[in-house]
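QA checklist item 7 of 12: single-chain prediction sanity check.
[x] sequence parsed
[x] length recorded as 197
[x] structure emitted
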Amino acid sequence: MQVTALVGSRRKNGNTAFISRKILEALRTALPSVETELLFLGDFDIRACTGCEGCQKSWDCIIRDDYAAIVSRIDAADGLILASPTYWYSVTSDMKRFIDRSYSLIQYPVSRREWISKYSGTGKLCVTAAVCEQHDESMMGSTLSLLNDFSRDLGIEAVASVKAIGHFDAGSVGGDSAVMEQAKRAGRLLAERLDSP
């Protein structure tokens, strides 16, 4: 069993990474046989989607960069963690480029009003997580909802979400017992769902 965490933050010891590691830690405690990896999208060369439609008959983006390597990890994974801090009311540019390029993972066999995803019916599961510096939850904007909508549109069920409000200093979220409990609970729930027949 494999779970891959995709982190949209470039702060490798920041709050988004901290939460992602806590989810993975709880997952491994509850399901010791699981293999996990944590990837920072900023470490990969992911170029912008050009809207060329070259992917629409193959599930493969024709832009040759590191995007395909990440997709191969999702292909192999049973579970996914999608995590991002809030930049201007939404996900980071690293996460947004990845999401935009994932247009290649859906196709329109009948019309533009209906689509199918490469992962529909695969049983893949997801946990989403978002961090916002401000204490007003509305300042998180679409960060968490975008990650949840993206997961859904890819045919990957989001089983839990973690929301951290009012955290900027790297690692400060570790002192927030409520957020840490959210992360642990998300990891345990993911383990439970992955382990169920």
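[x] summary fact logged: The radius of gyration is 16 Å.
[ ] second reviewer sign-off
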